[in-house]
Amino acid sequence: MATLGSLVSGVAHELNNPLNFIQGGHVGLKRYFESWGSNDSGDTDFFLSSIETGIARAKTILAGLNMFSRSNENLDEVCDIHAILDNCSLLLNVSRASGIILKKNYAVQEIITRGNAGMLHQVFSNVLSNSLASIEHNEGEIDIDTRIHKGKAEIRISDNGVGMDEETLRRVTDPFFTTRPPGLGTGLGLSISSSIIQRHAGTIEFISKKGTGTTAIVTLPLSD
């Protein structure tokens, strides 16, 4: 995971340079057309707006990559759970996956915990990735629900994928256990996620039944 974090950080850094060129070109074009006008201002404004939207989306993705790749081991950062969930779903392209509906039902109030933002990104990325993989033919739904329950943050990620039988459910966080074909999974994602949550003094459990989907429930202590 440390190697992956370094790779992601390097990619994000390299992408920043061409993005800055694109942003500079956008600013230059906008000033040019403001000064000299355009033969078709409607099309010009549309294309400039499209470029601006693309730049903003790219910056959001890069910010998420930088959060995911943070390599420090400290557990004293202030972590905004909703922001982390948004970053993870954006990076995994959940809401744009063909046929998959993403629903977010966040608590009205902010949910802040103290820990390591990079590690928590890994946890929720792993859980969401498994939900995506469980939905056959890219036709299904993933629900993310958050609330404060009994003085703790509770995050539920549910899907209506293929689900798990009792034997798989018992072993889902075992190291190197995977139901994916050879070469498509290491079997370490949920094992690492479970260890990370334990380090954050939280819990992670799974409710599932074959053919009816899976719900992952993560609880974390709230920040003082």
Given as residue ranges, the uncertain stretches (5+ residues, pLDDT < 50) are none
The tally of helices reads 6
Question: How much helix, percentage-wise, in residues?
Answer: 40-55%
The average pLDDT score comes to: 83
Computed Rg: 20 Å
Distance between the termini: 29 Å
Kindly name the structural category.
alpha+beta
Describe the structure.
The protein is of the alpha+beta class and 224 residues long. It is built from six helices and seven strands. Strands 2-4-5-7-6 form a five-stranded mixed β-sheet, covered by helices on one side. The protein has a two-stranded antiparallel sheet with strand order 1-3. Strand 6 (203-209) and strand 7 form a beta hairpin. Helix 2 packs across helix 3, helix 3 crosses helix 4 and helix 4 (117-134) runs antiparallel to helix 6. It is elongated. The two termini are 29 Å apart.
